[in-house]
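Changelog-adjacent note: as of this version, every example in the card shows the full chain rather than a window. The one below runs 189 residues end to end.
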Amino acid sequence: MKKIDKIVIGTHNEGKFKEISGLLPSYIKKISPKKLNLPSPEEIGSTFKENSKIKAKFFSEKLSLACISDDSGLEIDILSGSPGIYSSRWAGPNNNFDIAIQKVFDELSLKNQNWKQEKIISAQFVCCLTIYWPNGKCISGTGFIKGKITHEKKGANGFVYDPIFMPNNYQETFLEIKKLITDQMHLKK
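Full-length structure tokens:
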């Protein structure tokens, strides 16, 4: 198979575009469907893998290039896995994750008014990445990070549910961990 020198990052989410781009080698040109004014496909899958593949296939076929796309979200055990594949939809049409986080807290309160007294509200982040080539070849992989929901947001300027998700064996939220890593990277320069 021919070496990839440019790839579509199948998302309109600028934060995800930046994160995925940062994982790829610098010699690969990264194409943004948003900058090309391509619409996003309707995510009609019932799993993260199906939605990831829908996006990767759609953008690959539109641009005749390899595409890498993800679908990810937060699953909270006491909420029967919600928000799950609807994680970004909980943020509303403007992708406001302050609204989504408040909805998580509201749903937890509906399930158990005293949820903040519980020691652990177990949850997991799920992410499925799919690479789709114009010839129809497709590879997907799914990862999970187990953790818990915090009783309040921790950290500022968070990305998605990062301010309320604390991975197992950590005392910091994803957001606080990312800030520590970023601070350390700046110190090394």
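Structural remarks: The CA atoms of residues 107 and 157 lie 23 Å apart.
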